[in-house]
């Protein structure tokens, strides 16, 4: 996708002489590759039992969330009796072949970029019935003594932590097995200044947390590396701008490419404690306002986006407050608001969303962008 904007301007000197020119700015969009989640979905299944798995939830694509681009899927290695429906994105059927099968799932976007992942599907063979015929011997049958004493079996309910084979708990069943309930952490990215971890909880919900250091250069620019931009993409949230609002105050604008109806935002410090009263987070947008006391030099802040489906995404940013305020004061001695520029690649859809959200400062941002070209 390409975006082109044309601007006309006129310059007039003291002698009333003027000249006009036209400036055209073209922004070329870039395709983002789909990403496969590393959730463990290996499973055992009974022969002939109805099977159903939605594979579309195992892949994400920034372009899909921002521009409505759908992914196509290629499925290989299914046992007999199972089939993939491309209209629904669901594998279903009744397996008629026993054994262990490596199923390969491949997601392809409209630009032809693809990503694959495998999972193990073991189909358990049906039990076979064997009939044992005992030889009949002509022997004397001993007399049978009948004991009429009544036998009473008292069965207690399942102990805490035991569940039945299908995963439910029946207090009157008296049998079961221990089902361990643990959360699984998967490190998706670990580089200097950026860490992305996906946690699968005991309830099946996933939490993706991206931790990014906000570095301020000597020229006052906030710079994000390529790896940090990848961390932003994996959690679908990024810092779109940092704007100074007063001597010891600034706001952080958050761009969320996966925002949906019913989603809310909250915040905490890195250790999970409640935010101090000089930090506020907009529950509707995730934007942060910081009015820092002078004694605070740095801060690690968590911004949590919770969807209506219970899925959680967390953007954790480490702020060098002293450097942010020092560079703001050096480059802007007047007490008027000034935006600290952020360098690094930002997807086109998020650039447009940020511009629409901040039209009030449009002229100043355009001038800053032109002077940096």
Fold and architecture overview:
It is a single chain. By secondary structure, this protein is mainly beta. 13% of the residues lie in helices and 41% in strands. It has five helices and 26 strands. Strands 14, 15, 16, 17, 20, 23, 24 and 26 form an eight-stranded mixed beta sheet that branches. A five-stranded antiparallel beta sheet has the order 21-22-19-18-25. Strand 15 and strand 16 form a beta hairpin. 20% of the residues are buried. About 5% of the residues have low confidence.
Q: Which secondary structure elements does this structure contain, and how are they paired or packed?
A:
Blueprint: E1 2-12, E2 18-28, E3 35-36, E4 43-46, E5 51-54, E6 59-60, H1 62-67, E7 72-76, E8 82-85, E9 90-93, E10 99-108, E11 114-124, E12 162-163, E13 177-178, E14 184-191, E15 194-200, E16 206-216, E17 222-223, H2 226-235, E18 237-246, E19 249-256, E20 264-269, E21 279-281, E22 288-291, E23 299-306, E24 312-319, H3 321-331, E25 338-340, E26 342-343, H4 348-357, H5 362-372
Parallel strand pairs: 4-11, 16-24, 17-26
Antiparallel strand pairs: 1-2, 3-6, 5-9, 7-10, 8-9, 10-11, 12-13, 14-15, 15-16, 16-17, 18-19, 18-25, 19-22, 20-23, 21-22, 23-24
- Count of extended strands: 26
Strand content: 35-45%
Distance linking N and C termini: 21 Å
What structural class is derived from the secondary structure elements?
Answer: mainly beta
Total helices: the number is 5
Which value, in Å, is the CA radius of gyration? 31 Å
The overall pLDDT, averaged over residues, is: 77
Model regions low in confidence, pLDDT < 50 over at least 5 residues: 329-346
Provide the helix percentage. 10-25%
Mass-distribution shape = elongated
Could you give a short account of the major beta sheet? 8 strands, mixed
């Amino acid at each position: 996708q390409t975006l082109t904007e044309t601007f006309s301007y006129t310059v007039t000197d003291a002698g009333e002489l003027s000249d006009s020119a036209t400036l055209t700015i073209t922004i070329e969009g870039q395709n983002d590759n789909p990403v496969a989640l590393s959730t463990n979905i290996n499973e055992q299944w009974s022969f002939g039992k109805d099977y159903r798995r939605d594979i579309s939830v195992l892949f994400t694509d920034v372009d899909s969330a921002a521009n409505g681009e759908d992914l196509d899927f290629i499925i290989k290695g299914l046992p007999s009796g199972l089939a993939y429906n491309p209209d629904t994105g669901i594998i279903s059927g009744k397996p008629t072949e026993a054994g262990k099968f490596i199923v390969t799932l491949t997601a392809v976007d409209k630009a032809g970029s693809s990503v694959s992942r495998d999972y193990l599907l073991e189909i358990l063979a049906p039990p076979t019935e064997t009939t044992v015929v005992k030889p009949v011997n002509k022997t004397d049958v001993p007399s049978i003594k009948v004991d009429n004493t009544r036998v009473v079996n008292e069965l207690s309910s399942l102990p805490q932590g035991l569940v039945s084979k299908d995963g439910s708990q029946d207090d009157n069943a008296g049998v079961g097995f221990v089902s361990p309930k643990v959360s699984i952490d998967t490190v998706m990215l670990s580089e200097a200044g950026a860490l992305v971890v996906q946690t699968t909880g005991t309830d099946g919900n996933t939490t993706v947390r991206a931790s990014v250091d906000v570095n301020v250069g000597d020229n006052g620019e906030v710079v994000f590396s390529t790896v940090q931009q990848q961390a932003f993409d994996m959690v679908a949230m990024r810092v779109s701008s940092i704007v100074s609002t007063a001597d010891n105050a600034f706001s952080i604008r958050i761009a969320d490419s996966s925002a949906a109806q019913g989603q809310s935002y909250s915040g905490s410090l890195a250790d999970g404690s409640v935010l101090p009263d000089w930090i506020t987070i907009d529950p509707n947008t995730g934007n942060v306002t910081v009015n820092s006391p002078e004694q605070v030099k740095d801060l690690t802040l968590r911004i949590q986006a919770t969807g209506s489906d219970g899925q959680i995404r967390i953007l954790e940013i480490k702020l060098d407050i002293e450097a942010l305020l020092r560079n703001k004061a050096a480059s802007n001695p007047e007490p008027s608001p000034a935006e600290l520029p952020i360098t690094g690649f930002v997807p086109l859809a998020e650039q447009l969303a940020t511009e629409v959200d901040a039209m009030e400062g449009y002229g100043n941002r355009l001038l800053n962008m032109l002077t940096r070209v």
